[in-house]
Design goal:
By secondary structure, the chain is α+β, with helices and mostly antiparallel strands. 54% of the residues lie in helices and 14% in strands. It has one domain. The chain contains 3 helices and 3 strands. Strands 1-2-3 form a 3-stranded antiparallel sheet. The protein is elongated, with a radius of gyration of 20 Å.
């Protein structure tokens, strides 16, 4: 391999490594379940699986959830 080929390969591997590192930080992934639900992995020990209409209802009240969290910050525990 030439020097330029080695440099290109190193850059490709660095980019792949960074991508994998960033995925690990986020730690969340989505998959379609066998029954057609949307499963969210990485929140807890088991995936959270709901149908698309259920996810849309939850996402539709995102502002309300954020407000509730802020108002109840002292009562809520963190797991991190």
């Amino acid at each position: 391999m030439s020097d330029e080929d080695l440099k290109a390969e190193i850059e490709r591997l660095r980019a792949e490594n960074d991508k994998l590192k960033n995925k690990g930080v986020r730690g969340l992934s989505l998959k379609v379940s066998e029954k057609g639900g949307l499963s969210l992995y990485g929140v807890g020990r088991f995936p959270v699986t709901l149908y698309k209409e259920q996810w849309r209802r939850i996402l539709g009240m995102a502002a309300e959830i954020e407000t509730f969290i802020q108002e109840n910050e002292s009562l809520l525990k963190s797991k991190e």
